[in-house]
Automatic annotation (TrEMBL):
A biological process from GO: transmembrane transport
Top-level taxon of the source organism: Bacteria
Protein name (database record): Phosphate starvation-inducible protein PhoH
Keywords assigned: Signal
Length: 376
C-alpha cells in the first residue's frame, strides 16, 4: 500500500511540512486491506507527499465514509499543497518560444506498488527524444488526484482508466485521448472486468453476491467498480443496499483480500490474476472466476490540451501512435529485445484511440446511474 503524509484539517501544508510531525516515520501510516493497519482517523486527510524530495508524488485521498465533495476537494488540495512543499511543484520554466520545458506525466498503478515509473521509462525516453523536453513522472495512487491535477493544469499527460477518463472529460477537464496499450499489434484494444470468489466457495455467479462483503478497487475504476456495479444491477442486486462494499485500492489487493477472507468476493481486471500468481502471492485455485464483463475500451493516455502548445501536442501524438511500441523502441535503441518494459506490462505498445471509443462507458453510466459517473 502507498505511504501517507498526513496533516490535520485546518493546518496549512507548508506549516505541517516544516513540523516534526511530517517526518518520514510519521508519513508512513498505512491504510487498506490484506492485514494492514486501520484507515487514518477522520480528522486527517491522507496524501503521498514528500517535502524533502525534488518531486512531490500525487497521492490518494481517503474515500471510505467520505462525501463526494471531500473526495475531490482533498485531491485538489493535494495538487495545491505540493506547491507549498518545494520548488518541484512550481510551474515548469518556459522555453524561449513560451512553451514549457518540462512535461509532467502521471499515472495510477493497478497494483499496490510504490511506483510504476519503470513501466513508463521507455515511453519517457521516447517523449524526451521526440519533443526535446524533460518528462517528469508522478506516481499517483488515486484517479481523483490525476483528474484534479489535470484540471488545475499541473499534469500534462495522464494514464487513465476508461471510466476515470470519462469522468475527467465529461467533467470539463481539457483532456484528449491519444493512445492505448495493446498486447499485440493485431489485438483490439480492450480488456475485461472479472468477478472472483475463494476457490472453495459455493459462490458461482453474481447472483450469489447478495449479502456479501464485496471488494471493489476504486470508485473511479472501470473494471474495479463501474462495470461490476452494472453487472450486479443486471443480476438484480442493488450495489448500495444488498452488499457491503469495500474499496481495496488496487486490483491485486482485491484478489488478496478475497483469499485472506477480508472480502467474501470481489472484482479485478482479467489479467491481474496471472500477475499475482506469477509473483507467488496467490496459488492456482486460491480464487475462482465467477463472472466476466463485456469488453471494456482500452485505458487511454490523455494529454492536457490547455497546458501543452500545439506543436508539442502534435509531437506527442505522433510519438505515441507511431513509435511507442516495442519494435519501434528497439529500432530506436531505447530498449532491447530482451527487456522492453511498457505500461500495463503489454508486449507490443500503444495504438491510436479517440473519444468515441468510450461511448460504451458512457452507456454503462446511463444504465447504472452511478453517483461516481458524475463525480468530476
Amino acid at each position: 500500500m502507498p505511504s501517507w503524509a498526513c496533516f490535520p484539517a485546518g493546518t496549512s501544508a507548508r506549516r505541517w511540512c516544516r513540523s516534526p510531525s511530517c517526518s518520514p516515520s510519521r508519513r508512513r501510516a498505512r491504510s487498506g486491506v490484506a492485514g494492514r493497519s486501520p484507515a487514518l482517523p477522520s480528522r486527517f486527510v491522507g496524501f503521498v507527499l514528500s517535502c524533502s524530495h525534488t518531486r512531490a508524488t500525487q497521492g490518494a485521498v481517503v474515500t471510505t465514509n467520505r462525501t463526494r465533495a471531500l473526495y475531490l476537494a482533498a485531491s485538489l488540495t493535494l495538487v495545491l499543497a505540493t506547491a507549498a512543499c518545494g520548488q518541484s511543484a512550481a510551474e515548469p520554466a518556459a522555453g524561449p518560444d513560451g512553451s514549457k520545458d518540462t512535461i509532467v506525466l502521471a499515472a495510477v498503478p493497478s497494483e499496490q506498488s510504490q511506483s510504476l515509473q519503470s513501466q513508463y521509462d521507455n515511453i519517457i525516453k521516447l517523449l524526451e527524444q521526440e519533443t526535446g523536453k524533460k518528462v517528469e513522472f508522478q506516481n499517483a495512487t488515486d484517479y481523483a488526484a490525476v483528474i484534479e491535477g489535470q484540471r488545475a493544469g499541473k499534469i500534462d499527460l495522464a494514464g487513465y482508466g476508461p471510466f476515470s477518463y470519462k469522468i475527467a472529460k465529461d467533467g470539463g477537464v481539457p483532456v484528449e485521448p491519444i493512445g492505448t496499450p495493446v498486447k499485440t499489434k493485431d489485438t483490439p484494444p480492450g480488456y475485461y472486468s472479472m468477478g472472483w470468489a475463494p476457490g472453495n466457495s459455493p459462490v458461482s455467479s453474481l447472483n450469489d453476491f447478495r449479502g456479501k462483503k464485496v471488494c471493489f478497487v476504486d470508485k473511479a475504476s472501470t473494471s474495479g467498480y463501474l462495470y461490476p456495479t452494472a453487472g450486479l444491477m443486471a443480476a438484480g442486486i442493488d450495489p448500495e443496499k444488498d452488499i457491503t462494499p469495500v474499496m481495496a485500492g488496487g486490483h491485486d489487493a482485491s484478489l488478496l483480500a478475497i483469499k485472506s477472507g477480508q472480502c467474501d468476493v470481489g472484482f479485478a481486471y482479467d489479467t491481474m490474476i496471472d500477475q499475482v500468481v506469477s509473483k507467488g502471492q496467490l496459488q492456482q485455485g486460491d480464487v475462482k472466476q465467477v463472472w466476466k464483463s463485456e469488453q471494456i475500451a482500452g485505458s487511454p493516455l490523455a494529454m492536457n490540451t490547455q497546458t501543452l502548445d500545439a506543436d508539442t501536442q502534435a509531437k506527442i501524438r505522433t510519438a505515441i501512435t507511431t513509435k511507442a511500441n516495442a519494435p519501434a523502441l528497439i529500432d530506436a535503441g531505447i530498449c532491447t529485445p530482451e527487456k522492453c518494459d511498457l505500461p500495463d506490462k503489454v508486449k507490443y505498445g500503444y495504438v491510436a484511440i479517440d473519444d468515441s471509443a468510450y461511448e460504451g462507458v458512457r452507456k454503462v453510466c446511463e444504465v447504472t446511474k452511478s453517483e461516481a459517473c458524475s463525480q468530476a
